[in-house]
């Protein structure tokens, strides 16, 4: 079983739609979680951290379910500029290494 | 504010040649990392460093060496390049337990 698993997509959604990405992780000792965004031929950039109580940043909402070892990202009112690959990332307890999922590709269509 | 800077941006090598990729960060981060990213494989950790003078192996270290002589620099070396090392290489840095900041990558082709 891969350590961090994501649906690779692609997700093709119209502008204004709401889209949700899911991610599961296998290391129950993972302590910190993040969503990164990677545009085509660019470097990954931090989108948001994921907190146990869930957190929101504008149109983006992240949720964590430790019991199910599951992380989600919800994007509301999708914009063309949201088109990118979204990477689910976990940091193990006492570890300095991040484990990256392979990413979910999103295309927002006019 | 430069953040993480990688040089060169692009390079084409012949099989058997050697080269060094340079990563520099100006955020005073303790930890630095080298990844490679290949289609369908996601980001894979090659080597990392938790401080000046220290290095450790990641998931795919074979064929690469690293050095961290100064806190702000992390060098990745290919002693004898192979076509399988054709990839996009990303350097990243962070404080411990914090999200990593990435450089904009080096596209390396081995012929």
Describe the structure concisely for a colleague.
The complex is a heterodimer of chains A (110) and B (111). Chain A is mainly beta and 110 residues long.
Describe this structure in words.
The complex is a heterodimer of chains A (110) and B (111). With 110 residues, chain A is mostly beta strands. Chain A contains no helices and 11 strands. In chain A, the strands form 2 sheets. In chain A, strands 2, 4, 5, 9, 10 and 11 form a 6-stranded mixed β-sheet that branches. In chain A, a hairpin with a 4-residue loop joins β7 (60-65) and β8. Chain A is globular, with a radius of gyration of 13 Å. Chain B is mainly β. Helices cover 0% and strands 52% of the residues of chain B. Chain B is built from no helices and 11 strands. Chain B has strands at residues 4-7, 10-13, 19-25, 31-38, 42-49, 56-57, 64-67, 73-78, 87-94, 101-102, 106-110. The model of chain B has no long low-confidence stretch (mean pLDDT 94). The A-B interface holds A 31-32, 34, 42-46, 49, 87, 89, 91, 96-98, 100-103 and B 31, 33, 40-43, 45, 48, 50, 58, 90, 94, 96-97, 99-105.
Question: Which radius of gyration of chain B do the C-alpha atoms yield?
Answer: 13 Å
Tally of DSSP β-strands of chain B = 11
Low-pLDDT runs of chain A: none
Q: Give the overall silhouette of chain A.
A: globular
* Assembly category: heterodimer
Percentage of residues in DSSP E strands of chain B: over 45%
Distance between the termini of chain A: 37 Å
List keywords for this structure.
A: 110 residues, mainly beta, 6-stranded mixed sheet, 5-stranded antiparallel sheet, globular, B: 111 residues, 7-stranded mixed sheet
Please outline the helices and strands:
The complex is a heterodimer of chains A (110) and B (111).
Chain A: E1 4-6, E2 11-14, E3 19-25, E4 30-38, E5 44-50, E6 55-57, E7 60-65, E8 70-75, E9 84-92, E10 98-100, E11 104-109
Parallel strand pairs in A: 2-11
Antiparallel strand pairs in A: 1-3, 3-8, 4-5, 4-9, 6-7, 7-8, 9-10, 9-11
Chain B: E1 4-7, E2 10-13, E3 19-25, E4 31-38, E5 42-49, E6 56-57, E7 64-67, E8 73-78, E9 87-94, E10 101-102, E11 106-110
